[in-house]
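Worked example 3 (structure in, sequence out).
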């Protein structure tokens, strides 16, 4: 299979040189090849009996190559040359010795000319269509770059003050500086701020599609603390009793962006809890391999339609008005993008006996702090 692919690539390269290249050397070679082709076609036609076998057939390929390579002018000149070779230079039918009728070689010449002109017209049409597609693709690319720049800038501008607000709120909470009567309001403020940070990063990941590396703030983190924070965020689904965590000894630390990795894990763990029965645990295991750390999240839920992850990010599997689960459908789609931003990947596999295994692989150096 690999040898066939290499051979095909080599053949395509030679075709490009013959039919497309604007190099003067290639042009000279092609022109010489056309002249040689006309001579060979004339020799073959004369040797095989001249007009009786419809001599124009041997010249068709030469005319078509000229039309593709040199356009209308090349097609017309080559067709006229072929007409001269197939007609006046063969005054007698080789096999019978009878005089060739002018109408016969003229009709062959017209045939060659029409083949060349129609081939040139077809090639010009194909080129025009390709140019339109290229121009349209360039406009789309420019729009995508502009959109990505706007999304990146706006998301960064939103995320920075929100992070400061969230940090100050956490500090006030740790110092018990909030009066008891304002505790519910403060907790609502803290939750709303955290949700806004998540939303900004999620929308950036969904709409940017690859330029999010500027968001990364790498830190050395304790893996168990990351998972503890994730479980605390989804505690409303009885996560403390349902999530079972297992961490290998060489994966106790991870160096990555704390907010983004928590968002990825939260999307996956929350989805696993949401679509699993309340009496079924969600298993989370963490391993290290080379320069990556892998989080394996296993559940016994209804499974995931992987096709939805490559389509509209705002699409849910159940789009009926009576669906049981709410949300825009951004979670898993954003998790895939966020994992890519963290230098890794996110894959889904079916679990034997029912359920899903989600493999979250993120980049992390192998160094472990003392």
């Amino acid at each position: 299979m690999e040898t066939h692919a290499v051979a095909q690539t080599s053949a395509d390269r030679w075709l490009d040189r013959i039919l497309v290249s604007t190099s003067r050397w290639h042009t000279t070679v092609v022109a010489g090849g056309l002249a040689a082709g006309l001579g060979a076609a004339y020799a073959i036609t004369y040797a095989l009996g001249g007009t009786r076998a419809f001599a124009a057939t041997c010249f068709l390929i030469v005319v078509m190559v000229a039309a593709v390579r040199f356009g209308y002018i090349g097609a017309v000149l080559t067709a006229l040359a072929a007409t001269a070779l197939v007609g006046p230079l063969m005054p007698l039918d080789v096999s019978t010795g009878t005089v060739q009728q002018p109408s016969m070689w003229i009709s062959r010449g017209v045939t060659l000319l029409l083949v060349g002109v129609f081939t040139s017209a077809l090639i010009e049409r194909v080129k025009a269509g390709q140019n339109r597609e290229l121009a349209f693709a360039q406009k789309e690319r420019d729009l995508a770059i502009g959109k990505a720049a706007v999304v990146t800038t706006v998301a960064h501008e939103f995320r920075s003050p929100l992070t400061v607000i969230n940090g100050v709120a956490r500090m006030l909470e740790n110092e018990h500086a909030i009066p008891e009567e304002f505790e519910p309001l403060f907790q609502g403020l803290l939750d709303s701020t955290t949700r806004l940070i998540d939303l900004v990063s999620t929308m950036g990941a969904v709409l940017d599609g690859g330029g999010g590396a500027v968001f990364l703030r790498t830190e050395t983190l304790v893996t168990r603390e990351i998972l503890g924070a994730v479980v605390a965020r989804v505690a409303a689904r009885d996560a403390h009793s349902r999530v079972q965590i297992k961490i290998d000894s060489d994966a106790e630390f991870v160096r990555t962006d704390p907010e983004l990795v928590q968002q990825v894990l939260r999307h996956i763990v929350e989805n696993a809890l949401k679509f699993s029965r309340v009496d079924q645990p969600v298993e989370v295991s963490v391993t290290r391999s080379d320069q990556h750390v892998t989080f394996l999240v296993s559940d016994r839920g209804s499974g995931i339609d992987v096709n939805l992850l490559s389509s509209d990010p705002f699409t849910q599997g159940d789009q009926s008005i009576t669906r049981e689960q709410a949300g825009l459908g951004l979670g898993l789609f954003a998790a895939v993008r966020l994992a890519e931003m963290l230098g890794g990947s996110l894959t889904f596999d079916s679990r034997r006996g029912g359920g899903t295994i989600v493999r979250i692989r993120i980049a992390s150096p192998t160094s472990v702090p003392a």
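Notes: The chain has nine helices and seven strands. The first helix runs from residue 2 to 19.
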